[in-house]
Amino acid sequence: MQQFYKKIYDDPKFHELEGKRGKFSWCLALAVLVIYYAFILIIAFRPEIFAIPLSDNSVITWGIPVGVFVIIISFLLTGIYVWRANNEFDQIGQDLIEHHVKKSGTE
Amino acid sequence: MLKNQELNNMAKSCFLLLISLFAPGILFAADSISGNVVKQSVNSTAIIMFLVFVCATLGITYWAARRTRSRKDFYAAGGNITGFQNGLAIAGDYMSAASFLGISGLVFASGFDGLIYSIGFLVGWPIILFLLAERLRNLGKYTFADAVSYRLHPVRIRSLAACGTLVVVLLYLVAQMVGAGKLIQLLFGLEYHYAVVIVGVLMILYVTFGGMLATTWVQIIKAVLLLFGASFMALMVMEKMDFSFEMLFTRAINLHDKGLAIMSPGGLVSDPVSAISLGLALMFGTAGLPHILMRFFTVPNAKEARKSIFYATGFIGYFYILTFIIGFGAIVMLVNNPEYIDPEGGGIMGGNNMAAIHLAKAVGGEMFLGFISAVAFATILAVVSGLTLSGASAISHDLYASVIKHGKVHEGEEIKVSRIATICLGIAAIYLGIVFEQQNVAYMVGLAFAIAASVNFPILFLSMYWKKLTTKGAFIGGSLGLVTAVTCMILGPTIWVDILGNPEAIFPYKHPALFSMTAAFAGIYIFSVTDSRQEISDMETAFKDQYVRSQTGLGAEGSTQH
């Protein structure tokens, strides 16, 4: 197994995969962290922002739709990641394995 | 009688000393807090529905037992669970009775603040998906310690991981057992002790005979029932409000003591340090909970592992939105309704955590009340089963097979050890559940999350992302995280003031995660970079192999490549 790991590690396509996936997952993780901590920091420092009503004749405050938005966006971002990882990234990984493992297995 | 009392106190202090390491005098904490639970009359609908659930799940256990032969069957349900099923099971693990009753109760008591907790519990999931899940699935076999010890020295690192697992599992178990006992007194009119014993015995049966397969299906069934019940309640509330949120909130504001304040952040999150610290514990604690991490090995590959998080996040998010509606619905329908008001205290009968239960009766009558009560009991059973299985595998797979036997162990023997461990954990849970009856155990879940975030998460995360991590660094840093979390918790307001009765807290914040995570990461960094040159360069070399495997899944457990 170790020889295959080494071969794949030396393949530039592997580093292309790891670069792409790394960038993508860190961007999404950062997005979630920024959204969540913005929410928490508003609650900690400026809670009155979330107490503003949506409109003059509404009792619903901004805090509620923003909170629900955080829940929904978390779900959507997981969906986006799963979609790209299960199609694009897995395909590249599979190609790498086929190229290095299966090919050398028949030699 | 007196002797019994002494024994109880001794057990309490032993356990607390175990988890605290530095707490002389904690013995006196024993009777400072007593629950004010009133036993209800026997509720036969609820008991019948619960018996139906028990029979069905025991049937499943029988079915699962005949399919549980290998180690892989026992720990990982043979790796044959689909992403969708696993998503439901993860949601089941996560939607505990505490989060159903606790969060709807919190919304009932303070409105918007309940949402802050829900969101904190939810946002851990995307992070787990983006940063951990597929690497964990590709590297590990049955427990998260497998992934951590891929290149680190297995004996030391598994001892630490098993320790982290067991402490988290025990704290969580005790909180669940005590919750179960009190809940069942309220819902079914059964004695506290009976309830604790029933939960313990059923959980031992599920796990010992049915392993992960039975545990998973118990979770799935319970998740479906709970989602159905909560959806029905939210729908009935909205139907009564003509499907207008404006009307729901307006009426709640008019009825609630706090008035308009329930629509905005209140005193729950008081200072920024506590807010950030709580946020860290919720987010990264989830990523370090052993019973949750274990679930990623029940699916055949990384693809299904990712899908399971997608489904789980959807179900959990949907569930939290429901609990928000349920909490507000409870304000509208229960406040000022003499049927649900405690004639002496003036508040709601049984306390705020009963809001969802009373609302079930208000919208669906006795029948639905029975259903929801049975689901709440089932929820506890399912959660404790998952916890116990993960504790048992830490004992058998990490401690016995790897640390004591250095991997030279027959498969049948390892399964036998995990069954024995399950029974021991079950008995310990029953015992501690009884011992802690009169204690306030609410802090235990918080502490479990803080420890998961400061021990399990840092070593798991850095083992996957930092090539210079060495065994020494992980071991010392992880231990520092554990000690800091426990010490800060004991010296903080929750235990030092509320339970021990001291006038002022030595550590001023309720949530230690910010400090204990910092200690863990700093410790890991310092003791890794100062490790011997040879060790660091060995680790860097081993990291390459690990990296390829974690990225491509080549050589991963259950993969078709060889």
Task: Provide structural commentary.
The complex is a heterodimer of chains A (107) and B (562). Chain A is mainly α. Chain A has one domain (18-106). Chain A contains three helices and no strands. Chain A is elongated and about 70 Å long. The model of chain A has no long low-confidence stretch (mean pLDDT 88). Chain B has one domain: Sodium/glucose cotransporter (Up-down Bundle), CATH 1.20.1730.10. Chain B is built from 20 helices and no strands. With 562 residues, chain B is mostly helical. Chain B has helices at residues 2-20, 44-67, 71-76, 83-94, 97-110, 113-139, 144-148, 154-188, 192-240, 245-255, 272-286, 290-293, 302-334, 355-404, 411-435, 442-465, 471-491, 493-499, 513-529, 533-552. Helices cover 74% and strands 0% of the residues of chain B. Chain B is globular and about 75 Å long. Chains A and B meet through helix 1, helix 2 and helix 3 of A and helix 6, helix 10, helix 11, helix 13 and helix 20 of B.
Give the secondary structure arrangement, pairings included.
The complex is a heterodimer of chains A (107) and B (562).
Chain A: H1 2-10, H2 12-45, H3 63-106
Helix pairs in contact in A: 2-3
Chain B: H1 2-20, H2 44-67, H3 71-76, H4 83-94, H5 97-110, H6 113-139, H7 144-148, H8 154-188, H9 192-240, H10 245-255, H11 272-286, H12 290-293, H13 302-334, H14 355-404, H15 411-435, H16 442-465, H17 471-491, H18 493-499, H19 513-529, H20 533-552
Helix pairs in contact in B: 2-9, 2-14, 4-9, 4-13, 5-6, 5-13, 5-14, 6-11, 6-13, 6-20, 8-9, 8-14, 8-15, 8-16, 8-17, 9-13, 9-14, 9-15, 10-13, 11-16, 13-14, 14-15, 16-17, 16-19, 17-19
